Amino acid sequence: MTGIDRPIVLVGLMGSGKSTIGRRLANSLKLRFVDADEEIEKAADRTISEIFDEYGEKQFRDGERRVIARLIGKDPIVLATGGGAFVNDDTRALIKRDALSIWLDADLETLVERVSRKDTRPLLRNKSPRDVLTKLAAERNPLYAEADLRVTSANGPHMATVERILEALAQWQS
Ligand SMILES: Nc1ncnc2c1ncn2[C@@H]1O[C@H](COP(=O)(O)OP(=O)(O)OP(=O)(O)O)[C@@H](O)[C@H]1O
Ligand SMILES: O=C(O)C1=C[C@@H](O)[C@@H](O)[C@H](O)C1
Ligand SMILES: [Mg+2]
């Protein structure tokens, strides 16, 4: 596929697949892949958990906004955001203006199962992932719904989700 003239930005809840699907999507489109969470970790020389512990969530969100602003508006890339990025009004406005946004959506059971594989997410630490994700889905889904495209990130081969995204992109371009 050709003709993508702006960054493709993946948004959605923790575990929806922004990082893993994003990397494969970038490969398929021959675009550079960037993960905003990783960029924030590099810039701060700390893990996301350490940033939350040392500086708090508000500082993390400020850093996230700056990193995403720096990455958007350059070459077309595939950008995986952190789950909360599109919730920030400024970041969402920027993404909506300068990028093509895709909401990767998955049902609650799927998300709960996926996030249980790693315990690196500060918002889930010492909490019930099901309760946190239920609350976040209620708060955030109306905002994720403002993305240009919505694609279901169902379990199965990752490439099946990538294919669905490619189809959605082709339709959007036509
Ligand atoms: N569409 C999919 N099909 C199968 N497995 C998936 C799919 N999407 C994600 N996964 C798996 O779910 C887990 C979480 O995915 P990933 O880390 O990409 O989520 P994320 O949206 O980047 O989360 P976070 O917001 O916390 O960074 C990984 O183990 C990944 O392999
Ligand atoms: O959903 C969220 O608010 C978060 C998701 C992760 O990608 C990280 O950005 C961080 O753990 C916060
Ligand atoms: Mg991720």
TrEMBL record:
One GO cellular component term noted in the UniProt record for this chain: cytosol
Pathway of action: Metabolic intermediate biosynthesis; chorismate biosynthesis; chorismate from D-erythrose 4-phosphate and phosphoenolpyruvate: step 5/7
Residues involved in Mg(2+) binding: S19
Q: Reaction catalysed?
A: shikimate + ATP = 3-phosphoshikimate + ADP + H(+)
- What does the UniProt cofactor note say? Binds 1 Mg(2+) ion per subunit.
- Which subcellular locations apply to this protein? Cytoplasm
Top enzyme class, one word, equals: transferase
Q: Which positions does UniProt annotate for substrate binding?
A: D37, R61, G83, R140
The organism of origin for this protein: Alterisphingorhabdus coralli
A GO BP term here is: aromatic amino acid family biosynthetic process
Q: Which domain of life is it from?
A: Bacteria
Summarize where ATP binds, as residue positions: G15, S16, G17, K18, S19, T20, R121
Protein name (record): Shikimate kinase
